[in-house]
UniProtKB/TrEMBL annotation, chain A:
CDD domains: ABC_NikE_OppD_transporters (cd03257), TM_PBP2 (cd06261)
Membrane-spanning parts: 76-103, 115-132, 138-155, 194-217
Database matches in SMART domains: AAA
UniProt protein name: Peptide/nickel transport system permease protein
One of the GO BP terms on file: peptide transport
Similarity comment text for this entry: Belongs to the binding-protein-dependent transport system permease family.
Presence of the UniProt keyword Cell membrane in the record: yes
Domain of life of the source: Bacteria
UniProtKB/TrEMBL annotation, chain B:
Biological process according to GO: peptide transport; transmembrane transport
Protein family (similarity comment): Belongs to the ABC transporter superfamily. Glutathione importer (TC 3.A.1.5.11) family.
Ranges annotated as biased composition (Basic and acidic residues): 257-270
PROSITE patterns: ABC_TRANSPORTER_1, ABC_TRANSPORTER_2
Name the UniProt record assigns to this protein: Glutathione import ATP-binding protein GsiA
Annotated region (Disordered), positions in chain: 257-279
Organism this protein belongs to: Streptosporangium saharense
Known catalytic reactions: glutathione(out) + ATP + H2O = glutathione(in) + ADP + phosphate + H(+)
Source taxon at top rank: Bacteria
Record domain ABC transporter: where: 7-251
GO cellular component: plasma membrane
Reported function: Part of the ABC transporter complex GsiABCD involved in glutathione import. Responsible for energy coupling to the transport system.
Entry GO MF terms: ATP binding; ATP hydrolysis activity
Amino acid sequence: MKTTSRLLRRPAAVVAVAWLVLLTVATACAPLIAAHGPLDQDLSHVLALPSASHPLGTDSLGRDLLSRLLYGGQPALLAVAEALVAHLVVGVTLGLVAGYLGGWADTLITRVGDLLFALPAIIIVLVVLSVFPGNLHAAMITFGVLGSPGLIRVLRSRTLGIRQEMYVAAARVCGLSDAQILLRHVLPRLTSTVIVQAALFSAVAVIIQAGLGFLGLGAQPPAPSWGGLVADASQVIDRDPWMLVPAGVPLVLTVVALSMLGDAIRDSAVESWSVSKLATASAPPPVAKEHAEAPVPGALLSVRDLTVEIDGVPVVQGVSFDVMPGETLGVVGESGCGKSVTALGVLGLVPGNGRVTGGRVVFAGTDLTASPTELARVRGSGIAYVSQDPMVALDPTFTVLSQLREAVRRHSGANREQARERVLELLAMVGVPDPEGVAGRYPHQLSGGLAQRVLIALALAGRPKLLIADEPTTALDVSVQKEILTLLHTLQRRTGIAVLIVTHDWGVVATLCHRSLVMYAGQVVEQADVESMFVRPLHPYTAGLLAANPHRAAHGHALTTIPGTVPSPREWPVGCRFAARCPYAGDDCRAAPVALTGPAPARLTRCLHVEELVSEGARL
Amino acid sequence: MTPRPLLQVTELTVEYGQRHAPTLRAADGVSFDVRPGETVGLVGESGSGKSTVARAVLGLTPVTSGRIRFDGADITHANRKTRRALSARLQMVFQDPYSSLNPARTIGQTLAEPLLVHSGERGKPVGERVAAMLERVGLPAKAAERYPSQFSGGQRQRVAIARALMTSAELVVCDEPVSALDLSIQAQTLNLLSDLQRELSLSYLFIAHDLPVVRYLSHRVVVLYRGRVMETGPVDLVYERPAHPYTRALLAAVPDPDPRIRTGRHDEPATPRGASQPTATGCPFAPRCAHVVEICRRERPGLLPVDGVPGGASAACHRAAELTPTGNGTVARAVAVGRPGNAHMEET
Amino acid sequence: MGALRLVIRRLLASMPLLFLTSALTFVLVSLVPGDPARTIAGQHSTAEQYRLIRGQLGLDQPLPVQYWNWLTQVFRGDLGSSLFSGEAVTSILQNRLPVSLSLILASTVVSGLAGVALGLLSARRGGVLMKIVDGLALFGLAAPPFWLALLVIEVFAVTLRWFPVTGYVPLEEDPGGWAGSLVLPVVSIALGAVAIIAKQTRDSVLDTMNRDFIRVMQANGFSPRSILYRHILRNAALPIVTVLGVLMVSLLGAVVFVETVFAMPGVASLTQQATVQHDIPVIQGAVLYITVFVIVVNLVVDLAYVRLDPRVRTS
Ligand SMILES: Nc1ncnc2c1ncn2[C@@H]1O[C@H](COP(=O)(O)OP(=O)(O)OP(=O)(O)O)[C@@H](O)[C@H]1O
Ligand code: SF4
Ligand code: SF4
Ligand SMILES: [Mg+2]
């Protein structure tokens, strides 16, 4: 099986498996390995340290510790197996039934499971042992059952999750029966969970069975048991501390091995069908040398040659643009082209473990890339940020008032009361119908549109001069989207704030923006004022994107499309990154990086065949 | 002459019981039908009940009342066996291309699944049929051996479409099939859907919140609000001359991708959603409607033909007749009567 | 308001748990092969004496009646008396309760504080510290508490003589001695728990750090201290509290062993002794006390939830 072979490629798993196999085999073959019987006393060698004849030493009666360990392992492993079987039978059955059937079966099982979960297992096991003295089987089976609520919970929620997956609905639409769905879609996805849980439970069971032996509730002396060994060691601890080692270390190793195995199985099960990571990052593709011009005079924000790497791979390369005071600049492009990374890169915040590796960000004359303190000062008070999904962009554990007040006080040093006034003012400013009421609410009590307004209020708290909005309306319904766009427009007219808006919606660009920037595969490929870009795109990608918009299409005519997909950062070619999808591509395009050029005043494009595109305007 | 509808939904009502809240009526007396070879678009905001209707049609959610007929047969409460037989002809493509394919099964295994149930109609070996279908939707045949994680969203949606077509489907319910896709990939997928429709004379029940996409693909459209049909009719007629204030608000909210028109065409005042709930007996849209009058809160408007033309639009609004814009009515009606083919577009 | 309603609701909901455990114990105990009447009466008693004792103990009645009798007694605050010492079960338990509670509460506090601190540190520093927490977690989980107890005794009590080897000093007698007598037992109990909490803290802090609202706060200039201590920690607290609650109950297992090793007169070791001696009233009393403890812990966790998560509070 695939998972097994992947598992065996993990050193930790190999070591763990090796130890467990060794232990099982050695225990089973105890008579062959141990030179002495577990009960053979050698009173001339009591409490001996390891030696050739007693590899692990002896106890206070001169009995061979290795032998006692191995013979003691037999009842121990049996006890663990018993507990495990009871655990799995109860846990898997009830977990599957509860998760898959739902309804009253689920309610009942969950209730009973919760009750069992609250029981202190060890105490009940003790009671069982008082009823069946010395009966380790009864004790371990009880322990297995008492431990099953955890497994039931895990499997129930996994099954519930899988049952709600679209592919189960799809299988049902295809006419598969419940049995077929369970067999093909549910069980295979649960096996690794079950194995992981089984490994972890076995680890606990090993400790419990040894503990019972330690308390003298398991095998009765002089019969060997793991727990008994520790108990013996405790009797002689002042005379022979060494005995603690053979008594405890194998236990610890076994439990460690089981936990490591559990972790390894979990990791490799996921890996078997997810994308295998590319082994090494290839060298970053070269970029055309462009003279990074000095910031445009009067620009509010000037970004020059911004490069961002995530995990050592450049995802944004050599991006330059300016935002003038009061202007709205749109950043357009498909998913994964680097729009969000660019927007966050300006603020020095890159997702994951990425970082800005080159370029300059100059805001109101100050170079932010050179000074972390300036950058920290500018965040919120110079440049503010609004993210895509308003429902997760506010801290769910604080009220609107408390979050906004924190922002206000951070930027103004107002006292609590003044800050509260300002918060209400801000909420009114972003068109919240009932500022007092909304201020007292928690984020989960807000609708999407209201949450987005609150988020915008939060961004405005520091009276910023530039607002960076990353797809501020994508997660919203069209009518709410329109309200938010109108709000942004109004705010801009009233406060003169500049806006950098990331979007993939041409409609948003057309409604709101003065100029727009098209990004493809981590680079700017075109930049122009919005009117000219819509009328006469100068890059084949822009032209393709505009044409693919169904808004302009007539029913029954095929939509113009761009073949293929956006390459991921690891697949960027040396030459023009759009070449594989471009109808005008020639050998020259693929030969070397293409530079941004300005074929017309105030326009920039990264294309060698602009003339063809313009003259053939109709083709795309 | 209208052919017999393939799918006929009559007064469909679906309620969800909730634990700590009153039952939620997700679909409330919804009626429409889908004819052979036709695409009917279902539009509305999130929570308006689009997906509920789709799931009810496919038997994925129990129906509270009303009737669903497929090719004349009542399938409202069809049992498992009937559903299994039906699944060859009635299929679905889901919204999320990432969760609609089991990540632990190869594309080939996924595509072979529908054939498990309908093994009776086996002609060519399964492998060949899978390969042929993959090629038909524009994927290499060797994709069958790979796992979904090795494909992009657009490619996965092609696989999902292929799965729906493995048996001889007649009606495919598409629940937001392109909303998770990028613009250029969305266009590819829409073209594929439209080519397949022509080749295989498929019918689609096409659900989307993106109005231009619905317009592009659909012949007729149903507008839902709070589980009720607000307006329905031929797509061009409804888009050009929306009779219902809600339809107009929706259309006006779509930002126009033309920088020369910075203000909306049908400039419906967008009232922010107030806290007020619609009255139980009145028009559900009344709290947000700019044209609300006293009767709206008292009496629920029925879904009635707007201007009495057969095959025209119907709207559930007391004031539909007086509010409907008197635009280029003749064009709209002409389109309404015939099947919208390569229709005009005024503003391209 | 909400909190009080919640307390009452939870207390009512936990009644079944009390019934379940007590009935379960009752049924189990009725299966005991040995006969307490015979034990008390002694080997050489007459049949008459034996019957008398059976009658006194109520053992001649049907099981449900016995259970009912026991329950009514319980409501009168009478848990019977030990079959061995004859002492009232309530007074035995009252004497031993402080020992076990000291152990559990101290272990919880230690593992909570140390675990959260360690987890936070490893979430922020990453690298080596992360590995250490992982390794510690693995070892802490794997080392059986009774063995670990012996190990710390050997090192800190026998060799270094920093702490007493065994025994318990009541708090009211000598607070310093009390604390000293708790150190080694608490270390043996809490090592695994510290690691579990540290791991949970690290995971939920890292998880929270990657959430959108944290990015929004950073981008809008919130102070890094406030982001970490006010927002991240608060949001990460929910799963930590859950784990802490589960842990408190499961620490009972470790407490049984550790009380035995350190010869501490607590409830858990009492249960174990009573098990060996078949002292049924004591077992039943102890189980009852422990169940009440579990219920209280769950209640506290629920209240913490209400405090921490507005979604619970406002729905
Ligand atoms: N947290 C992350 N870890 C690793 N890679 C990331 C991370 N975030 C983004 N990337 C990668 O960086 C590149 C650019 O991503 P970015 O999010 O900026 O694109 P985008 O244009 O904003 O796309 P979308 O329209 O989907 O928001 C992509 O290749 C993406 O896979
Ligand atoms: S440079 Fe060549 S390949 Fe690139 S966009 Fe222009 S024409 Fe196409
Ligand atoms: S019935 Fe009244 S409230 Fe409803 S949409 Fe028509 S005008 Fe508006
Ligand atoms: Mg993005």
